[in-house]
Design goal:
Chain lengths: 114, 279
């Protein structure tokens, strides 16, 4: 994954994590895997960004964590969305939509005939 | 308040973070092995990708504190807002704070002046006041007041103390344009200030040169008298006052804590060895 993509990701990583966790409680590794699968390998989240983000979201009470047995039988920390987190995510999804529309409008503006 | 818990169970939080990251590392390794890479190579690649457990831990810790500072800032703003909204509560809070700060200041100054530093003089533990006592007489006590030449003899023949300073208390008539008042004064030997090591807050202290019989008379004033009679005016230094019908120049003001003599004026006593002795 290129550096340019990481830069793009930084502001939106929180939102992507919240969305992935909203699909079902999962641990850090599964979140990274799912992000990669859903985005068709576009987003390869590095651990150095993923875990600080997860802990930050947990601190803000948007995620809650629980130690549970994972699919391999080993204990893992599972994150799930809180009510507060869901509200935040929904608001952010709307914002993101607006941003994309606005950027699209500007980029698709027809060139003036001169 | 997760961070309070984390503060008290620091090792627990660290252990959990370690477990969480190790789980990730092991899963990654397992997936590489499943994809057909040899176990050693899988482990190596996963570790390499991880780029150092400690660095990631450090980054996670950073996010925590960042959040707390942010929270602190938000709490502070919230507190300010609620204070502004409820004036009565704000007044009570300010009053409580003022009372608390005032009370602790008073208690601290009592403890400081009374217990920690009761005598603000140079080498205060080594200062003694001595008396002469006839050994043939029973009982305690003796004479602590000496004539000028007794004092000079003691000072000349002294090899116990580093230095000796003498004081005599007297009343001096201070004549000014509205009349005259009597001041309780202390006449001190010229070495007294060097002996006590207290600097005046304004001007200079009395020196050995002021002790010469030919030197013009100078005096120092205590803080209280300066405040009461001269409103703490710094320009008063260098003026001449009539003390006991003789002009004397005010050369300095002693600090408020200099209260060893409890006198308003400190005048040089010309009690140096070269002073004329009356046998």
């Amino acid at each position: 994954m290129s550096e340019a993509r990481i830069e793009l990701l930084r502001g939106t990583l929180d939102l992507l994590i919240l969305k992935v966790v909203a699909l079902g409680p999962s641990h850090g590794y599964a979140i990274a895997q799912r992000l990669q699968q859903i985005s068709k390998d576009f987003f390869q989240v590095h651990q150095g960004s993923l875990y600080p983000a997860l802990h930050r979201l947990e601190d803000r009470d948007w995620l809650q964590a629980e130690w549970k047995e994972s699919e391999t039988g080993r204990e893992a920390k599972f994150y799930s969305l809180t009510k507060k987190g869901r509200r935040h995510m929904e608001a952010e999804v709307v914002n993101w939509g607006r941003l994309v529309d606005a950027v699209g409008l500007v980029l698709r503006a027809p060139a003036k005939e001169s | 308040m997760r961070w309070i818990r984390r503060l008290f169970q620091k090792s627990h939080a660290e252990e959990q973070l370690d477990q969480e990251l190790r789980f990730h590392l092991d899963r990654q390794t397992a997936d590489y092995i499943a994809a057909g890479i040899s176990p050693e190579e899988a482990r190596r690649r996963a570790t390499l990708e991880f780029g150092g457990l400690d660095r990631i831990k450090e980054e996670v810790r950073d996010t925590r504190w960042e959040v707390h500072l942010d929270n602190l800032f938000r709490d502070f703003r919230f507190a300010l807002c609620s204070l502004r909204k409820d004036r009565r509560f704000a007044l009570i809070a300010i009053f409580a704070l003022a009372l608390g700060i005032g009370a602790s200041t008073v208690i601290f100054s009592i403890i400081y002046n009374g217990l920690l530093n009761p005598f603000p003089y140079k080498n205060a533990n080594g200062i003694s006041i001595f008396q002469i006592h006839d050994l043939d007489q029973a009982g305690v006590g003796g004479r602590g007041a000496f004539s000028v030449h007794e004092f000079l003899d003691y000072r000349e023949q002294n090899h116990v103390f580093e230095d000796m300073a003498g004081t005599s208390y007297s009343r001096i008539l201070y004549t000014h344009h509205e009349g005259a008042i009597q001041l309780r004064c202390a006449k001190v030997t010229p070495n007294t200030f060097e002996f006590l090591g207290v600097m005046p807050i304004l001007g200079r202290w009395i020196t050995k040169e002021d002790g010469h019989a030919s030197a013009p008379p100078v005096f120092l004033m205590n803080y209280k008298f300066w405040k009461e009679q001269f409103n703490g005016d710094p320009n008063v230094i260098g003026t001449t006052l009539i003390l006991d019908n003789q002009p004397a120049t005010l050369v300095g003001i002693m600090p408020p804590r200099f209260q060893i003599f409890r006198r308003r004026c400190l005048v040089t006593a010309h009690a140096e060895p070269h002073a004329p002795r009356q046998q």
